[in-house]
Amino acid sequence: MKIAVLPGDGIGTEIVAEAIRVLDALDLSFEMETALVGGAAYEAHGHPLPEATLKLAKEADAVLFGAVGDWKYDKLDRPLRPEQAILGLRKNLGLFANFRPAICYEQLVGASSLKPELIAGLDILIIRELTGDIYFGQPRGRRTAVDGHFPGAEEAFDTMRYSRPEVERIARVAFEAARKRSKRVTSVDKANVLETFQFWKDIVTEVHKDYPDIELDHMYVDNAAMQLVKAPKKFDVIVTGNMFGDILSDEAAMLTGSIGMLPSASLNSSNQGLYEPSHGSAPDIAGKGVANPLATILSAAMMLRFSLNQAEAADRIESAVKHVLASGLRTGDIWSEGTKRVGTREMGDAVVAAITKKTITG
Ligand code: IPM
Ligand code: MG
């Protein structure tokens, strides 16, 4: 089993280091190889996704990714910005299915900005299509308008598009995932305005015929954004396009009050996957040793489960994280009165200890 380790920028290096220590503590045999990505790769090689990094990622069974980005790269031409590395990996590896769970840990109920009763026990799964939609649709660019409200003016444009197979496959992923949960899927669209999303809705409805055991409903994205803060527990699996999924997954993550806790997985059709925390590179706290490594550690658990066929090891990590939370340790982002504030390394130590002392049984 080969893991490509791409720590990236900002807090990426610190949090990935802890995830690796946790993986090492499992006593399984992985081959791990590290490469530069994002701003770090741009500094060293002049490109955020160098050929060698892409090759490593393609050859590996899984990619463990930290985070990329820093404000200092905002003025670079778009193809050289750190974010292009993650988009390039998604595209080149065909990582079309993005799993973003939003789980409210019992001990962290108080960290949410919503009332505890609204989010206690929250466990939703956003499945975001990741290689289509307006993110990748061509044509895009700038030009002089020939029509519209201001012919002759400068304009910019992107293209929202989905093909039938793209929608079919992500719908299947969602229905299959729902089968292992509470058998409910909400498909989020904007069919009242957009042709692309009327098409999306029609196809999801068709594919649903193969899954009579699953309950499907459809919701417009604006309403979904509202329902997520009004009554989030009404959702179970949400499936949506790339753009809406980007926005709703941040909203859902923040419902739990602790984006520092949430892992994510992006899979292709052969279960090769990229695993990363749902949060970004947080340059403001980089290098200070205070970042929460748990989202990355939990991403490593998802990696074991989805791409490396090691469900038991994944359970061990997840149990260890719960144990550490129950013992009262908190990084700054999830700290509250009466708990013990620790840094990145101490949090990693505690998870490793929980795994190796075998105080935890899967
Ligand atoms: C995410 C991020 C990325 C996205 C950026 C960094 C390109 O926001 O993974 O949600 O928009 O998909
Ligand atoms: Mg995002």
Question: In short, what is this structure?
Answer:
The protein has helices at residues 12-25, 39-45, 51-59, 83-93, 116-119, 164-179, 195-208, 221-230, 242-255, 294-306, 311-326, 344-356; strands at 2-8, 31-34, 62-67, 97-103, 123-129, 141-144, 154-157, 184-189, 215-220, 237-240, 263-267, 273-277, 329-330, 340-341.
Description:
It is found in: Cytoplasm. Residues 2-351 form the Isopropylmalate dehydrogenase-like domain. Pathway: Amino-acid biosynthesis; L-leucine biosynthesis; L-leucine from 3-methyl-2-oxobutanoate: step 3/4. NAD(+) binds at residues 280-292. Substrate binds at residues 90, 100, 128, 222. Strands 2-1-3-12-11-4-5-10-8-9 form a ten-stranded mixed beta sheet, with helices on both faces. A two-stranded antiparallel ribbon has the order 6-7. It contains twelve helices and 14 strands. The protein has helices at residues 12-25, 39-45, 51-59, 83-93, 116-119, 164-179, 195-208, 221-230, 242-255, 294-306, 311-326, 344-356, and strands at residues 2-8, 31-34, 62-67, 97-103, 123-129, 141-144, 154-157, 184-189, 215-220, 237-240, 263-267, 273-277, 329-330, 340-341. With 362 residues, it is of the alpha/beta class. The protein has two domains: 1-96 and 268-362, Isopropylmalate Dehydrogenase, CATH 3.40.718.10; 116-260, Isopropylmalate Dehydrogenase (3-Layer(aba) Sandwich). Magnesium ion (MG) binds at residues 246, 250.
